[in-house]
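Supplementary Methods. Inverse-folding protocol.

Structures were first reduced to a discrete structure-token string of length 222. This string, shown here, constituted the complete conditioning input.
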């Protein structure tokens, strides 16, 4: 099932115009229903129009964080969040989120996010509660390249390429970084084994997933 109608919520016109160009390039037959620039105008639009197939939703708008939209009206469409900040990624996935794209949005990442939704819709036997099904279906669109980890009062990003190996300790997954620091990661090794690029990582045993480059370096040093 192709995406036909999209609502864009973006308060910076250059970003909105670029997003429109990318969408129409990737999906020439889609219809951009409207471009809204605030929480209030988006709520009004959603309350007075049929639900679009997809909402492209900027996290930070002029009148607040767009998560407030979900508290003010019923959102019946899947959402692709867009933002210049990665600190809201965890929260975004609580709100009908198909994907979370960091600005500047790359064409390949946007295409992959659209295909996540389209592939889901093509594979379910009936629509039913499509949003709930979509959230259960969503898998990483690509091999995991970074991790958003709790840090002090917020979050920080750790790149997968900076991890020497993952291991478990007392049932908790941890990552040893090339800086010598150790970070706790929320995923299990079983999840990581599915999410990490097998060209870069391999499951050594039940307790370790090792970056091939670090294993090769250790062998050479030996």
């Amino acid at each position: 099932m192709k995406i036909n109608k999209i609502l864009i919520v973006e308060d910076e016109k250059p970003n909105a115009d670029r997003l429109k160009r990318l969408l129409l390039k990737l999906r020439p037959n889609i219809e951009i229903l409207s471009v809204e620039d605030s929480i209030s105008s988006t709520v009004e639009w959603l309350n007075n129009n049929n639900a679009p197939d997809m909402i492209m939703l900027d996290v930070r708008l002029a009148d607040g964080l767009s998560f407030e939209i979900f508290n003010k009206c019923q959102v019946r469409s899947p959402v692709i969040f867009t933002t210049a900040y990665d600190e809201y990624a965890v929260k975004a996935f609580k709100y009908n989120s198909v994907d979370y794209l960091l600005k500047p949005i790359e064409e390949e990442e946007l295409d992959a996010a659209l295909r996540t939704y389209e592939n889901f819709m093509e594979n379910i036997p009936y629509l039913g509660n499509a949003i709930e099904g979509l959230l259960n279906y969503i898998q990483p669109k690509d091999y995991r390249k970074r991790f958003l980890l709790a840090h002090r009062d917020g979050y920080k990003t750790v790149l997968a390429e900076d991890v020497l190996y993952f291991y478990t300790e007392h049932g908790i997954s941890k990552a040893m970084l090339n800086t010598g620091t150790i970070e706790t990661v929320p995923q299990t090794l079983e999840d990581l084994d599915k999410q990490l690029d097998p060209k870069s990582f391999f499951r050594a045993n039940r307790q370790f997933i090792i970056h091939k480059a670090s294993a090769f370096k250790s062998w050479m040093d030996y």
